[in-house]
Known about the structure:
Chain A is an all-beta fold. Chain A has strands spanning about 5, 10-15, 20-25, 30-40, 40-50, 55, 65, 75-80, 85-95, 105, 110-114. In chain A, the strands form two sheets. In chain A, strands 2, 4, 5, 6, 9, 10 and 11 form a seven-stranded mixed sheet that branches. A four-stranded antiparallel sheet of chain A has the order 1-3-8-7, with no helix packed on it. Chain A is globular and about 40 Å long. Chain A starts with a strand and ends with a strand. Chain B has about 110 residues and is mainly β. Chain B is built from no helices and twelve strands. Chain B has strands spanning about 5, 10-15, 20, 25, 30-40, 45-50, 55-60, 65-70, 75-80, 85-95, 100-105, 110-114. In chain B, the strands form three sheets. In chain B, strands 2, 5, 6, 10, 11 and 12 form a six-stranded mixed sheet that branches. In chain B, strands 3-9-8-7 form a four-stranded antiparallel sheet, with no helix packed on it. A two-stranded antiparallel ribbon of chain B has the order 1-4. At the A-B interface, β4, β5, β9 and β10 of A face β5 and β6 of B.
Amino acid sequence: EAQVTQNPRYLITVTGKKLTVTCSQNMNHEYMSWYRQDPGLGLRQIYYSMNVEVTDKGDVPEGYKVSRKEKRNFPLILESPSPNQTSLYFCASSFKGQGLYEQYFGPGTRLTVT
Amino acid sequence: AQSVTQLDSHVSVSEGTPVLLRCNYSSSYSPSLFWYVQHPNKGLQLLLKYTSAATLVKGINGFEAEFKKSETSFHLTKPSAHMSDAAEYFCVVSDRTGFQKLVFGTGTRLLVSP
């Protein structure tokens, strides 16, 4: 089954404790992206990757890191989480094609930072 | 720069009556436009997409949307609402410059009463 998976689905952590949210897709997509969803703000892009070893900042990259060492995986790293990073996070992937292809979304990771 | 404006944060309808969710977009380039749906505690699912073929686009579950360039609109409609349509709906724009960045609207929550 074609899908995007994220782990963990739920995470409660404390300020400053490094964490990684994993994202994996099995559709051989070149493009992958991370979004955060906050009430009243819709989804905002954190980082994206056009292919292996090619990543770039989205609209809200502060406090986040990513890496793309393999085509299928695109982990999101919070090196020192803060309470304002409490949010619902989505990973997405698609074929690369100048905005013509829809993005497939993972099920989301709900992160709470206390 | 691209943007989308969803004109209603909440829309309430009765089961069996028509649904209209309004979206206006702004894009410097010829846009691709999408509607995604998010059911409670679920990920995002593509409803339909416009990529410059037919201006009237049919999607899943009886939804459709019409691209109107003169009005810069991409409203989502359905002739008859079902209880299962209750969800949050996002209008999304993507330009075709090659970066595939999705810009989300702030969402419209559709409430369906019996």
